[in-house]
Specification:
Blueprint (H helix, E strand, L loop, with lengths): L18 H10 L1 H12 L3 E5 L2 E6 L2 H9 L5 E3 L2 H8 L9 H11 L6 H4 L2 H13 L4 E3 L1 H17 L5 H17 L22 H22 L11 H7 L10 H14 L2 H14 L3 H12 L10 H4 L3 H13 L6 E5 L3 E3 L2 E3 L4 E4 L1 H4 L16 H4 L20 H18 L1 E3 L7 E4 L2 E4 L5 E5 L1
Parallel strand pairs: 2-8
Antiparallel strand pairs: 1-2, 3-5, 4-12, 5-8, 6-7, 9-12, 10-11
Helix pairs in contact: 1-2, 7-8, 7-19, 8-9, 8-13, 9-10, 10-12, 13-16, 13-19, 16-19
Length: 450
């Protein structure tokens, strides 16, 4: 990154169609929108969307500049839109001392020994959900979403009451299913539309989840040990946060953080797992190699060593490749908050800057044959954090990325080791599900045996 005191603001070239049209194209087919414009205008390019002009890039050198910029120079993009879904106090929207303090308090829950301590639970939850499968069609995304959410509910709340856990799972799935992709670009979208059809689900789902979260926070404040298993949870940590002046988080702040972890803590992981499960069963060679590797950690009684699963190199490479080829978040949205020069252009303050993993992950100079699902590439060379960033980067990099990658390995390894699936139809296409992208729900897997 470089600064220039008296240069004139400028933008890279790009399409200049109506903002609503460019927004619709981006939401409908992000990968196609990005690749078409890079082919025509180069990287970076700019385009008008609903909230103003956005500059898109996937070039590693420019990604580095953006991720390395101070948060007072490159800030969150259109926080009011994210706030309408997750709440104004969501961790990803916080800046300055508040962001650093809450992130530092929560980080130990998602790293190191604490992540490993959840391995047995991950295996048990996966086997319980998969064990309930019948022979026949199975939707990979639905299966992985329920597994991932069940796991993350334990981390967030640690419920000892199965009925309470199930209630939280159902309310969260309804909430996520009611999110419309355009809500990320149009603040208060559902407030201006009739409460009928798919969009009509949102106000009711939002109110139901919010009431549950407020009730659970009140319960924990009254009795910190009531209704949940021993051990630190995200909610425990949020209630324990104290700032320098001694004040704690308000209930509204705690609820916003819980909502953020519920949504981002399972939806993106579930999408990556679903893509990986589908890809493994489309390539007999990959399936055979993975099966051989999984056999090395089978205890002989049909139980795999969960911690050993997390260390298997080819299994890890499969998960990495799924996140590369099918990024759950195709771009990381940022905004220029202070003078900033990108590739020789001093971007006007207020300009959006979208760091596109959907472009970076398809760079043939970094990933030869980028369209091909080839896990071995991650065993041959580890890309840099500016070439491969499925969990974002910089100060706002996903707090739970280590937990998420470990979870993906445990769940995928457990499913493949103990169940047999087949694919049906051609390759799946990515579509929006809530705030992220995952495989379309058509073209299910066929579950044949356990």
């Amino acid at each position: 990154m470089e600064r220039q005191a008296r240069s004139q603001p400028s933008l890279p070239p790009g399409p200049r169609g109506a903002a609503w049209l460019q927004t619709a194209r981006l939401v409908r087919d992000a990968e196609g929108f990005l690749r078409k414009n890079v082919a025509r205008y180069g990287d970076p390019f700019s385009a008008p969307i609903r909230d103003g002009t956005v500059v898109f890039t996937g070039r590693p050198d420019l990604v580095r500049d953006i991720f390395a910029a101070p948060t007072d120079v490159i800030s969150p993009y259109a926080p009011e839109h994210i706030a309408s879904v997750l709440g104004p106090h969501a961790l990803i929207l916080l800046t300055g001392a508040a962001h650093k303090h809450e992130r530092a308090m929560l980080m130990p829950l998602f790293h190191g020994a604490h992540v490993s301590s959840w391995t047995r639970t991950m295996v048990e939850v996966t086997r319980r959900h998969a064990g309930a499968l019948k022979t026949g069609d199975v939707n990979a995304l639905d299966l992985c979403q329920r597994i991932a959410l069940d796991i993350v509910l334990g981390v967030i709340f640690g419920f000892s009451d199965p009925a309470r856990q199930q209630q939280a799972l159902d309310l969260t799935l309804e909430f996520v299913g009611a999110i419309h992709p355009l809500q990320i670009f149009f603040d208060g979208l559902t407030a201006h539309l009739p409460a009928v059809g798919p969009l009509g689900r949102w106000p009711k789902a939002q109110a139901a989840l919010d009431a549950f979260l407020r009730d659970e926070v009140a319960r924990r404040r009254r009795d910190p040990l009531a209704g949940h298993a021993p051990g630190q949870t995200v909610l425990d940590m949020l209630l324990a946060i104290r700032y320098d002046d001694g004040h704690a988080l308000a209930d509204s702040e705690v609820c916003d953080q819980l909502r953020t972890f519920l949504v981002t803590g399972h939806e993106t992981t579930a999408g990556g797992m679903a893509w990986a499960l589908d890809a493994v069963h489309r390539d007999p060679a990959i399936y055979a190699r993975l099966s051989d590797e999984l056999a090395t950690v089978d205890g002989g009684d049909g139980d795999s060593d969960g911690d050993a699963l997390g260390r298997l190199p080819f299994l890890g490479a499969i998960c990495d490749e799924a996140l590369r080829l099918y990024p759950v978040i195709p771009y990381v949205p940022k905004r220029v908050a202070a003078p900033f020069v990108l590739d020789g252009h001093e971007l006007p303050i207020g300009t959006g800057v979208f760091v596109a993993s959907a472009l970076a992950h398809m760079n043939p100079d970094v990933f030869p044959e980028p369209e091909r699902f080839r896990p071995e590439r991650f065993l041959e060379r580890r890309p840099t954090a500016f070439e491969y960033f499925p969990f974002g980067g910089g100060a706002k990099r996903c707090l739970a990325s280590g937990f998420a990658t470990h979870e993906m390995r445990i769940v995928l390894g457990t499913l493949v080791a103990h169940h047999r699936f087949q694919t049906r139809g051609g390759p799946l296409r990515p579509v929006h599900h809530g705030i992220s992208r995952g495989p379309a729900r058509r073209g299910p897997l066929i579950h044949s045996a356990a």
